[in-house]
Amino acid sequence: MTTPNLLNETHDPKLTSWVSSANIEHSDFPIQNLPFASFKRKGSSEEFRVGVAIGEQIVDLKALHALGLFTDDAQDALAACCKAQLNDFMAMGKRYWSALRLALSQALAQGSSMQADITSCLVAQSDVEYALPCQIGDYTDFYTSIHHATSVGSKFRPDNPLLPNYKWVPIGYHGRASSIEVSGRDFKRPKGQTKAPTATEPSFGPCKRLDYELEVGIFIGKGNDLGAPISIDDADDHVFGVCLFNDWSARDIQGWEYQPLGPFLSKSFASTISPWIVTSEALAPFREQWTREASDPQPLPYLESSHNRALGALNMQLQVLLETAAMRDAKQAPVQLSQSNFKDSYWTIAQMVAHHTVNGCNLRAGDMFGSGTQSGPNPEEAGSLLELSNAGAEPITLPNGETRTFLVDGDCVIMKAWCQKPGAVRIGFGEVNATVLAAD
Amino acid sequence: MTTPNLLNETHDPKLTSWVSSANIEHSDFPIQNLPFASFKRKGSSEEFRVGVAIGEQIVDLKALHALGLFTDDAQDALAACCKAQLNDFMAMGKRYWSALRLALSQALAQGSSMQADITSCLVAQSDVEYALPCQIGDYTDFYTSIHHATSVGSKFRPDNPLLPNYKWVPIGYHGRASSIEVSGRDFKRPKGQTKAPTATEPSFGPCKRLDYELEVGIFIGKGNDLGAPISIDDADDHVFGVCLFNDWSARDIQGWEYQPLGPFLSKSFASTISPWIVTSEALAPFREQWTREASDPQPLPYLESSHNRALGALNMQLQVLLETAAMRDAKQAPVQLSQSNFKDSYWTIAQMVAHHTVNGCNLRAGDMFGSGTQSGPNPEEAGSLLELSNAGAEPITLPNGETRTFLVDGDCVIMKAWCQKPGAVRIGFGEVNATVLAAD
User: Fold this and answer.
1) Contact map slice: A 132-161 vs B, CB within 8 A
2) Which of B179, B87, B98, B330 is nearest to A363 (CA)?
3) Which positions are annotated as binding substrate (chains A, B) (predicted)?
4) Is A148 a catalytic residue?
5) Residue B1, pLDDT above cutoff 80
6) Could you give the CA distance from residue A375 to residue A428 in angstroms, rounded to a whole number?
C-alpha cells in the first residue's frame, strides 16, 4: 500500500502572496491556508457575507464573484458563496471546494495578474465582525480523547475509569445547535439545579463549577441520505473543514442532571466556535499515521481502513489561555493553561463520520461535530479545569497570584490552534474567545 | 385564584362547518380543531405548501391568501403561511395564531359568506402527501412519564428503579433533528454495535431489539433569546402546538453505547411525526388540573405556578396499533397494543419549556420537544415493546397468533390520539405510521 498523495500546488511551501501580511512568519493565514468565514464591517448595516482569509485581510467572495474573473467550477463555487453562510458551497462537494481553492491560490499568489482587481475585494480583518460560518443543523459532541475520558472517569470510578465500551465505540451524543455562537459573544453564567453530595435536596442558583472544554469543531460538507451510511473510505469527501470549539460546561448542573440520558442544560447555555473554518484540503500536509496500540482492541471493520491508518490523525496543536478581569485591568497578557494535540485523539474524524452514519443517520451540509475535550497524555495537557484542578480539589495558581478551580465572572477563555511541521508552511486557526458574565 | 378561561367562540361545541365531512361524529378534524400541515398533491411536481385540515379536506393557505378575503392580523398571518413550512408563522406568536384561527373558524362555519370562494382552495386529504410541517432546528427528548421511567429503571435496578433526580428535574436530552421524518416514510432497520451480556466483545449487525416509543411532539412557536429564560407563566405563549411522535429505538444498540453520555445511534436512525400540528389553542378545552402527590417533592419555584397547577395537564388519549406483514396480506385490521393518556405525565409542557430555558438556552420557532414515552400507571398502558414484553422475556401474542418481543421487518406501527370530554367536540390528531424495512 502506498500513502495517497493529498498534496497539490496549493500546498507548495514556496508560494507567497501579493497580500504581504500573508507572508509574515507565524501568520495564521498564509496563502497555503485560505479558510472561510462569514463577516461584515463592524457595526455596519451590511449583510453578513462569506470571505476567505489571507494574511490580515479578507477576500469578499461576493465582490469577487461580481468581478467574473474565475471560470467554470471555481466561478460556480463562488456563486454558491454569495450568501450569508457557507451551507450551499459546503454541499457542493470536494470538486468545487478544490476548484475554488486552486483559483484563489493562483489569484492571490505573488505575480498574479488579478492583483489589481482583487485588491478592491479586500477588507481588513481588524475592521470586521463575524457570524456563524454556516447554519448548523445538528451538532454532535464526541468524546474522542481517551486521556480526557480516563481522567474524568477516574474521579468517579478510581478502579475502573474507562467504561467497557470506550475502546470499541466512538462515544458521542447529540448536542444543542441553537446555542452555538461565534467567538466574541460573551454569555451569562447559567443557572440551574444542583445538588451537593451531602445535601438531601437540590437547590437552584448560578452554576458554581463553570468550565471550558478545549475541542476541535468538524464541519460536514456534503451530506448523506437517511439510510445510506458513509463508509470510512468515503468519509474524507464529506468533511469540509475544521475550527476551534469551546464547549462550555456547568459541571455541577451536569453532575445532578445527567443520569440516565446524558448532559443537557449543563451544555446548552453556550458553545463558542472560532470564525474561520480551515478546510480539509488545507490540512492535508498535517495528516499523519494513525495507530491503535496492539494491546487495545482493533477497530471493528466499519471503523477500519488502510487510508485511515495511513492518514487518519491530524497534527493540530491546541492551546488554552485565560485572561482574568484583573489581568485585563492590569493590561497583562493572557496566560496559557494548557496545550495538547489533536493527533492524540483515540478516534479519527473519518471514524466519527463512519460511526455516526452506520445506523443510517443522515448528515447535512453545515452539521458540526465536536471532537470532545482534547486532553493529551500528560496531566498538564488537560483540556478542562475539571482536570487541571482535580475536580476543584487542587486550585491552580496563575502568574499574577490569582487562583482558579473553576471559572469566575469576567474570565475570558481564549483558544488557539495551529498546524506546523518541517517542510510545510505553518497554518493557524485564529482564535475562539468569550467572557463569562455574571448571572442575572 | 380563578382558573383563566382559555376558551373563545372557536371552541363553541355548537359550531359546524359547510365542509360536511367535518361534522361527522368522530372526525379528527371538526371545525373546532383546524390543525396545520405541509402538503402537496401526491406525486405531483407542486411545491409543498401549508394547509389547515377541515373534515376530509385541506384549506390551501397560499390559495386562500391570494383571494384576499381576510384582513389585518389574519391576512398577515396567512402571508406568513405562503411557504413550504410553518416556521415564519410559528414565530409570529399567539396574537397572529389566534387571529388566523378565528378568521378560519368564521370562514369555514356553516353559513359563511366565503363558502363559494374558499371551496376553490380545498384539496382532498386522500389526494395529498405530506412533508415536515416545519424546519426542526433542534429536537429535545424529555422523559416525562414516571411510569415509563420506573418500568424501564426496574429492569436495570429492581431495588431502586427511579434515579434520585427524577422527581426534581424534568429529565431531557438533545436528540437528532435531521432524521425526523413525516408519517409514512418507511425506514431500514438500523445496524450497529451491540454486545450481549455474556459476550466478551461487541459485534456488528442489524439491530435485534427494535422498538417504538409512543410520544407527544411539542412545537415551539415564538422563541427566546440566548440568556433570556422563559418563565413558567410565559411558557404557554411559546408553544405553537402538538403532534404524535414515534421515537423509534434500537434497544440493543442503546444498551451498549449509552454510558456515559446518553442515547445516540440507538435513536438517530429514524423518528416519525404525524403530519398535523394541533394548535395549543385548539387544545384549550382539554387542559386539566395538574397535581403533584403530597408525598412527592413539590417543584422548585421556577417549575411552579398557579396557572400550571390549574391547567398544566393535557387530557390527550394516545393509542398504539400494530399491523404486521401477515395481517396486511390477510387484510386484517391493525391491532391495538396499548392506550395511555398524556395527562398522566409527571411534568407538564410549561415545565418542560421553563426547565429547558432556565439556563439561558434559546428555543427557536419550529424546535420540537418529545414528551418521552408515555406509559400510563397500569402495565397494559405501556408505550413501548420493551415494557409490554418485559424486555423481551415475555412475548406478547397478537390476535392472529403471531408473537412479538420486538419489531420484525414488515411491521407497521400506527399511533393515534384524540381529545374528548363531555361538553366539548372531540378533536383528533390523525395518525403517525411507518413500516420497518429489512436492513441492507
Assistant:
1) 137-138, 140-141, 143, 153
2) B179
3) 143, 157, 254, 258, 373
4) yes
5) no
6) 19
Q: What is the mean pLDDT of residues B150-172?
A: 90
Structural domains in chain B, sorted by start: 10-131 (2.30.30.230), 139-437 (3.90.850.10)
* Contacting residues for A431 by C-beta, under 8 A, at least 6 apart: A183, A244, A274, A414, A415, A416
Contact indicator for B95, B72 with CB cutoff of 8 Å: no
Going by DSSP bridges, is the β-strand pair B368-370/A191-194 parallel, antiparallel, or unpaired?
Answer: unpaired
Kindly report, residue by residue over B298-311, the tens digit of the pLDDT.
999 999 999 999 99
Does the annotation place B247 within a ligand binding site? yes
B245–A contact, CB cutoff 8 A: no
Residue B2 in this model has a pLDDT that exceeds 60: no
Does the ipTM exceed 0.95? Answer: yes
Over residues A29-71, the pLDDT tens digits come to 999 999 999 999 999 999 999 999 999 999 999 999 999 999 9
Q: Dihedral, CA atoms, B310, B311, B312, B314, nearest 10 degrees?
A: 140
Q: Does A204 touch chain B (CB under 8 A)?
A: yes
Nearest chain A alpha carbon to B149? A260
pLDDT tier for residue B143 given thresholds of 50, 70 and 90:
very high
- Contacts of residue B300 in chain A, CB cutoff 8 Å? 193, 202, 204
Give B338-357 pLDDT, tens digit per residue.
Answer: 999 999 999 999 999 999 99
* B262·A263 Cβ contact <8 A: yes
- What are the start-end ranges of the E strands in A9-167? 36-41, 49-54, 57-60, 122-124, 128-131, 139-142
Residues 318-377 of A with CB under 8 A from B: 355-356, 358-364, 367
* Whole-number Å distance between alpha carbons of A131 and A36: 11
> d(Cα A80, Cα A82) in Å, to the nearest integer?
6
Q: Is A195 marked as binding a ligand?
A: no
B223 CA to chain A: closest CA distance, Å? 11
Q: Would you state the cell numbers that stand for residue A151, as one nine-digit string?
A: 481522567
Q: In angstroms, how far apart are the furthest CA atoms of chain A?
A: 74
- Asked whether B365 and B93 are in contact (CB, 8 A), the reply is no
| Whole-number Å distance between alpha carbons of A135 and A223 | 14
Q: What is the pLDDT of residues B215-235, one digit of tens each?
A: 999 999 999 999 999 999 999
Per DSSP, the three-state class of A179 is coil
**Helix or strand or coil: residue B328?**
helix
Supply the DSSP symbol for B106. Answer: H
Query: With pLDDT > 70 as the criterion, what percentage of chain B qualifies?
Result: 99
Q: Which residues in chain A are contacts of B178 at CB distance < 8 A?
A: 137-138, 226, 361-364, 367
Name the pLDDT band for A142 (thresholds 50, 70, 90): very high
Report which of residues A259 and B276 the model is more confident about.
Answer: B276
